[in-house]
Specification:
TIM Barrel; 17% strand; 40% helix; single chain; alpha/beta; 8-stranded parallel β-sheet; globular; metal ion binding
């Protein structure tokens, strides 16, 4: 079985077809999915999905690209994360690719998320793009290793992966790893230890080959696993078992789908 460790099923383009998407998950042996929050305004609909479906979970956080949001405090985030179906804080992190100028507001937002995770003892979902050095520095400064988490939609170097794993973080691969030009990323997926790996779709974005350019969905996470198995010359079932176990272990979830 497979687990989509990062998707956005509350986004309108996916939410309108939710029943069919859940059927597609079942048909592709995708048993669970983590629906990730990107702002607090829409958090209630993320939580509603998790509450309505035993195999869906939620996170609480504000994406670093959402510049004009009311800045969440660590206490506010922690309060939301006390709900048993909220299994992580995020997504959070740094993104210097899309936004320019003084990014101190983004760094301070990231710190608040790490402090919230520490307060509730739940892992972090970290987004980093063109900001790896600052991301790792703030993780160290704020003690993110105490709760660990996942480097979501990983596109960085093996060195960045090693530094993150040393802080108790998992590395999650999306459909990007199936892209023909993702040569360096394929090498990372081939070489890192399997017991620190997760798979995801980040749907509705980044659909894997053979669906590249189309709307992504959790059922397609199987194709991410298939590519990783091919790269590592491994059995698909071994990738499925490892990434599923890693998800349950990181997010402290029983096999029956209930948080510990």
């Amino acid at each position: 079985m497979f687990i989509d460790s990062h998707c956005h099923l509350d986004f309108p383009d996916l939410a309108k077809d939710l029943d069919q998407l859940l059927v597609n998950m079942q048909e592709n042996q995708v048993t669970h999915a983590l629906c990730v929050s990107v702002n607090l305004r829409d958090f209630p609909r993320v939580l509603a999905l998790a509450e309505a479906h035993h195999n869906l979970f939620a996170s609480a956080g504000v994406h670093p690209d959402y510049e004009h949001e009311i800045e969440p405090s660590a206490h506010e985030l922690a309060k939301l994360a006390h709900h048993p179906k909220v299994i992580a804080i995020g997504e959070t992190g740094l993104d210097y690719f899309r936004l320019q100028g003084d990014m101190e507001w983004q760094r301070e937002r990231f710190r608040q998320h790490i402090r919230a995770a520490l307060e509730v003892n739940k892992p972090l979902i970290i987004h980093t793009r063109s900001a790896a050095a600052d991301t790792l520095r703030i993780m160290r400064e704020e003690g993110a290793s105490q709760v660990g988490g996942v480097m979501h939609c990983f596109t960085e170097t093996r060195e960045v992966a090693e530094q993150a794993m040393a802080m108790n973080f998992y590395i999650s691969f999306s459909g990007i790893v199936t892209f023909k030009n993702a040569i360096a990323l394929k090498e990372v997926a081939k070489s890192i230890q399997l017991d620190r790996m997760l798979i995801e779709t980040d749907s509705p974005y980044l659909a894997p080959v053979p669906f590249r350019g189309k709307q992504n969905q959790p059922a397609f996470v199987r194709h991410v696993a298939e590519e990783i198995a091919r790269l590592r010359a491994a059995e698909l079932n071994d990738i499925a078992i490892a990434t599923t176990n890693n998800f349950f272990n990181l997010f402290k979830i029983h096999r029956n789908g209930l948080p510990t």
